[in-house]
Design goal:
Length: 174
């Protein structure tokens, strides 16, 4: 579940204090590469925080610039909150092709972290709707996601926000 937030620090505080979800692994400058929005390159800068509630991944996203993106369209439409419901894929290219064949628009694609960390945000092209997203799952990011999930399962409320250098971690795991 990917939530676009106005203030990621305040959002992490809310999720950890009021909802008891945490800890959040926070990356002030997410390693997003080769982002394409509506078929054109875009230099999105965003902060991301990851945690789990049970076995559901929670991603908080704050875009830090005005580069074109589905996140910015969502905000400009007056929305904050649930932006996408993500689906992990062990065969990203096949599943992206199937999404296109099913009539879904591919609004945004990119790579996060590792070279095979593909993701796509799918449409319809309506900025106020929560959208499906496709996220490549591979040995590299699976190790990161499992570590975050394990920490959330045993979290005792201490250290609710943890700085996390995903790019360094993924490079170390690659």
């Amino acid at each position: 579940m990917g939530y676009v937030v106005k203030d990621i620090e305040a959002a992490m505080q809310h999720w950890t204090r009021a909802l008891r979800v945490g800890p959040f692994y926070y990356v002030k400058r997410a390693p997003i590469h080769e982002l394409s929005y509506r078929g054109a390159p875009s230099d999105v800068r965003a902060s991301i925080a990851l945690s789990y509630s049970g076995n559901m991944q929670i991603a908080l996203i704050q875009q830090r610039n005005e580069a074109p993106s589905s996140f910015l369209d969502f905000v400009n439409a007056g929305r904050f909150g649930l932006h996408y419901v993500g689906f992990f894929s062990s065969n990203f290219d096949r599943d992206l092709r199937r999404a296109r064949e099913a009539g879904l628009d591919v609004l945004q694609t990119g790579i996060i972290g590792s070279p095979d960390g593909d993701f796509a945000i799918l449409g319809p092209d309506d900025p106020v709707r929560t959208r499906p997203a496709l996220i490549a799952i591979n040995d590299t990011n699976l190790d990161v996601f499992r570590m975050v999930e394990k920490e959330a399962q045993r979290w005792d409320g201490s250290g609710p926000i943890r700085q996390f250098e995903i790019s360094k971690t993924w490079k170390a795991l690659a």
